[in-house]
Design brief:
471 residues, mainly alpha, Fumarase C, Chain B, domain 1, Fumarase C, Chain A, domain 2, Ribonucleotide Reductase Protein R1, domain 1, 3 domains, two-stranded antiparallel sheet, 22 helices, 5% strand, elongated, purine biosynthesis
Length: 471
């Protein structure tokens, strides 16, 4: 009988993010794992205790000493393998993860000067008060400290490539067909520009939080300490955590901010997906050469000549998975039945995989881009084989002269269509057509000097707009 992998120690990962791709996604473990959730809960609980006592919200209770504040703040800082195991042991008894956090903290206050104040831990809180703030801290940390820097890295890579290839002419393709030439740098700059807009948007996203009781009314707070300004206490605490205060909630914080963040990350992912498919296509056209040393290992199991664009294909797949998960998070988290249901509890535990697949995709994109060399000669050959793309230039000059009153230039579009549509036109054929038009000398010379490689308009200069976005 085959071995059961479920019984092997250490445990075998079920998902590739914690198995095959662990190295690329490991930075998210500090922010979006179950252990990170419990550490964030410890932060919220201990900071709430400090806040209530230092603000003297509860009459008759003293403020804390510096040593006592340090003791409380050391609890989440020291939460490691032993603490994770201890919390799990407590949770097996409580069958409630947040209550287990409360007991975990109280254990650490036993025998200290804070033991008489132990009941302040979790006072005036419902579990969701702790959870919503914990998730906000976790997602904020993951996005700002891990995911955004990764996105900024790929933007920097694209910006450098755009500048390097700003003047390298390239045949465009619209609807997959040869079209007005551009430069490789300009096309790459488009992606850098698109992603930079999303970067700024995501960097400006808000992370909301609340701490207002079982149904968002401060009922337990007001009946216990009627003289306190509980809304101000709540607001100042949420802002102390570096979050934006939400004044109107049910038992749960409404999660609208999460939907906004995930939608923004998903949109950036779709732009990255577009980048992956375009670069894959440029590789297939020969515009990029891949260095095997940069892509790694064997190109093909049976065809030794191949270097497969696996980094871009891997990125595509991971961005599709990430986008689907992020869309699901964004669409479901904004709904909770009446004042509370628990569907969000399960849903939010999948934030890590959603952002993890995106982070993995970015890592593959960056590695793939780093292994590319621009093949200007291949692009030049493609341009030389498609002189018919100058049809647009010729008919545009004819139109301009026609509207200025020059005769003999009727039906310019139709005449160029007859010349170029469905026909291959070489340089000699295009120049022969131009000289047959009877154009004024200046216009004729300008068109005769044109080639597909030089018909790129202001493409190279457009790359400079990336400089405008540096601030």
């Amino acid at each position: 009988m085959a071995h059961s992998f479920a019984d092997i120690t250490p445990q075998i990962a079920l998902t590739p993010l914690d198995g095959r791709y662990r190295a690329q996604t490991a930075p998210l473990v500090d922010h979006l794992s179950e252990a990170a959730l419990n550490r964030s809960r410890l932060v919220v609980e201990t900071e709430w205790m400090i806040h209530l006592l230092d603000q003297q919200v509860i009459p008759g209770l003293r403020t804390l000493t510096d040593e006592e504040r340090a003791l409380l703040r050391a609890i989440p800082e020291d939460f490691g393998a032993d603490g994770i195991a201890e919390h799990a042991e407590i949770e097996r008894e409580t069958v409630h993860d947040v209550k287990a956090i409360e007991y975990y903290i109280k254990r650490r206050l036993a025998g200290t000067t804070l033991e008489p104040l132990a009941e302040v831990v979790h006072i005036y809180c419902t579990s969701e008060d702790v959870n919503n703030l914990s998730y906000a801290l976790m997602v904020k940390g993951a996005v700002e400290q891990v995911w955004l820097p990764a996105l900024q890295g790929v933007i920097a890579d694209l910006t450098a490539l755009a500048r390097e290839a700003a003047e390298v002419p390239m045949l465009s393709r619209t609807h997959g067909q040869p079209a007005t030439p551009t430069t490789l740098g300009k096309e790459i700059a488009v992606f850098a520009h698109r992603l930079r807009r999303q970067e700024r948007r995501i960097a400006a996203d808000e992370y909301l939080g609340k701490i207002n009781g079982a149904t968002g009314t401060y009922a337990a707070h007001a009946v216990s300490v009627p003289g306190a300004d509980w809304q101000q206490v709540s607001r100042s605490f949420v802002e102390h955590l570096g979050l934006t205060w939400n004044p109107l909630t049910t038992q749960i914080e409404s999660h609208d901010w999460q939907a906004e963040v995930y939608a923004d990350i998903a949109r950036a992912g779709r732009i990255l997906h577009n980048l992956a498919t375009d670069v894959w296509t440029y590789i297939s056209l020969g515009y990029f050469r891949q260095r095997l040393s940069a892509q790694g290992g064997t190109g093909s199991s049976t065809m030794p000549h191949k270097v497969n664009p696996i980094r871009f294909e891997n990125a595509e797949a991971n961005l599709e998975i990430s986008g689907a998960l992020l869309d699901s998070l964004a669409s479901t988290l904004v709904t909770s039945r009446l004042q509370r249901d628990l569907t969000d509890s399960t849903t939010q535990r999948n934030i890590g995989p959603a952002i993890g697949h995106s982070l993995l995709a970015i890592a593959n994109l960056r590695k793939g881009l780093a292994g590319l060399d621009v093949d200007a000669e291949a692009m030049a050959a493609d341009l030389e084989g498609n002189w018919e793309v100058l049809g647009e230039a010729v008919q545009s000059v004819m139109r301009t002269l026609g509207v200025q009153g020059h005769e003999g230039l009727d039906n310019p579009y139709e005449r160029l269509k007859d010349l170029t549509r469905g026909h291959r036109v070489d340089g000699a054929g295009m120049r022969e057509f131009i000289t047959s038009l009877g154009l004024p000398e200046a216009e004729q010379e300008r068109l005769l000097a044109l080639s597909p490689a030089t018909y790129v308009g202001e493409a190279a200069r457009l790359v400079a707009h990336l400089e405008d976005e540096r601030a």
